[in-house]
Amino acid sequence: MNAFLGDCARGFQGALKALFADRAAVMSILVATVIYSFYYPAAYSYQVASRLPTVVVDLDRSPMSRDLLRKLGAVRAVDLIAPEPSLAAAQARMSEGKADGILIVDADFERDILRGDQGRVTFLAEGALLSRANTVLQGLADAVAGFSQDAVLVQAQFEGLPNAAPMRLVQRPLFNTREGYASAVVTAVAVLIVQQTLLLGMVLLIGTHQELRGRLALSAGALSGALAAFWSIGLLNLLYYSGFVYWFQDFPRGGNLPGLLVCAMFYIAAVVAFAAFVGSFFRVRERAMQVILLLSMPLYFLAGLSWPATSMPDWLNWLAKLVPTTAGINAMVKVNAMGARLHEVVPELATLAILALGYGAATLWRYRPPTPSNPSQNHDA
Fold first, then answer.
1. Do 227 and 358 sit in the same domain of this protein?
2. Which of 84-88, 284-288, 289-293 is modeled with the greatest confidence?
3. Where in this chain does the record put each ABC-2 type transporter transmembrane domain (predicted)?
4. Cα–Cα distance for residue pair 72/57, rounded to 1 Å
5. pTM here?
6. What DSSP letter does each residue of 175-237 carry, written as one string?
């Protein structure tokens, strides 16, 4: 036991020494983590898109249609630009990239409302940028909803019901209270950033080890100590994001702090074991950067937040579960942003524990020293 603990201590110290002696690894694990914490959220600092150019095609040209356009001008999401006389002209404006949305007010809009019918309007949005299209459509819908409430009062008064009032729908977001894009995306991507920076740094160090020594051969104690060193660094990185960065950027946070610590420990354990196993297959350190950076976005989509898991094939969902970020992102968002209890993230914790044990066992096998009976045995990929 004493020998094992001694090996652990030497492995812990050796891993930290190797890390700080490698400039690229330090940049990947430590410096890049801090840079990304400010650089990545900067693109979403406004949280929601606003004042998106929208062109109007008013085929009615009535007092009511002009009243609708006045209400539309008060909506933050859209910015009315010069109107067009026809749908074809408005579509040409959109195809040139000068408009993100189109509002078409049908002919006889006012007449239909005064007769007690529904006036018809049509919303169109540019689908190339989904977030902007959704903002435009939501803004147009809000303006029309406000106008429709006034139109209902006009119809009620016409029918002799002056006290009639339309039902108002009040929406209150529970977790993403600012309804911001950054609050929804960055809090999830941050968990992926921690994995990718830690994965890249560890694989660089492992690749260097193989280039210099030609093989992977560590005792169980030394390997455990080295993994514990990276686990400590990864845990600090994740807590830095979940604590300071979310507070500084004013993202949803602090829903369940004890649960956050538990999920963070399980997640980083799975990431470190995964990185050590994956790194054993890279004999050239530069190859790691090419592969890992290429897979960052697919790993985020596989997590099931921006693209629902129910819309993916079953085999792809099972493949996604082999990567720690799939369970880790969902667990961290639940406990930190949504205040979930630990029993509500048991499936994610179980998946992370299985991954940590599975990749840990595979790592021990990959890094096992050669047996005395065959000292020339080489276990490298």
1. yes
2. 84-88
3. 27-365
4. 13
5. 0.71
6. S-TT--HHHHHHHHHHHHHHHHHHHHHHHHHHHHHHHHHSS----HHHHHHHHHHHHHHHHHH
